[in-house]
Amino acid sequence: MKYARADAKQAAREQFTGLWAAVTTPFTAAGQVDADATASDIGHVADRLGVGGIFCTGVMAEFWCLTTEERKRAVETVVEAATGKVPVLAHTGHHSARETVELTRHAEQAGADFAVVITPYYPVSSYQGLRAWFHEVLSAVDIGVWLFDTSYSGVTLPMDLIDELADLENVCGIKVGHDHDRYLETLQRVGDRMLVCEANEAMWLENMRDHGQTVYMSSAIPFLFQTPSQQPMRRYTELALAGEFEKAAEVAATLEPLRTLGSKWLHGQWLRDRTVPVPFIKAWAGLLGMSGGDPRAPLTRLTTEQRTELEADLAAVGLLE
Q: Angle CA(98)–CA(106)–CA(116) in degrees, nearest 5?
């Protein structure tokens, strides 16, 4: 963190641009967090894919199955690997406000540039309960914080509370993990005071062109839809941010086969079965040269048949080099 608390919003507007990737947490054969594989993955997305930043220890990183010490070590490993390359956004959310404060303070001390906190997911809370939770957390930390309003948590932040929190000096953004209408509503309500991001690749070009979104923050798509030799998402992002929207649209149109696969293997798993798609993300990334590997329980590995079918699908669209 290289800014004062009062400057968090401005620092976020300067740093959050382009594609940010949400990395997974690799595990060793013995089931421990694999620091070497984590560092290798960061090198891949930062050096070979040219992402603009890293989102770590979030939903894609299975934060719910990591111990507090594992979460801290994972942040430290990512920061160490990313330093001098790209900024780091560390997810520090927990249903315990005190645990969230501890994790957020640690992320700041470890060198993370920003933190993001998921809406507390248990127990179901009233408006006043959510309000008290956020004020307890946000008043206790100095680092710039993103809100994470996502359907994965099972709780939707009340819009009036988002509006109130947007006035706090260290609240610098919100990732909207609901439908496009919710993104537009949030943008209209608080876009003048903090960044508003929808991480939906199918809407990314439109959001840059029509709504001024400057950062795709944050999902696994930047390293699932691209390889070192094929980077159409990065290309159309750069074109759009430079104002060349017609050229950007031509490049974006080439991703349609990949979007079909994304619907089948990634977000489609959540929409159809309420299954968090981390096992599929890890298997897909592993086929593209990243660490991949298995998830921790209660998530389960792909079957042999699923893995074979996924590999055939990726080969059919030309992703396997």
A: 75
Q: Is 177 exposed, middle or buried (0-12, 13-18, 19+ CB in 10 A)?
A: buried
162 lies in a domain?
A: yes
pLDDT, averaged per 10 consecutive residues of the chain (321 residues), comes to 94 97 96 95 97 97 96 97 97 97 98 96 90 98 96 87 98 95 98 97 98 94 97 98 98 97 88 85 97 94 96 97 74
Two structure tokens written together for 126: 């009233």
* Model pLDDT, residue 268: 78
Judge if the upstream peptide bond of residue 298 is cis by omega within 30 degrees of 0: yes
207 class by beta-carbon count within 10 Å (0-12 exposed, 13-18 middle, 19+ buried): buried
CB 75 within 8 A of CB 110: yes
Q: Which residue has the tokens 């840059």?
A: 208
What domain range includes position 108? 5-245
pTM over 0.85: yes
296-305: b (≥16 Cβ within 10 Å) or e: eeebeebeee
Q: Which two tokens stand for residue 159?
A: 């819009």
| CATH at residue 240 | 3.20.20.70
User: Do 26 and 291 touch, CB atoms closer than 8 A?
Assistant: yes
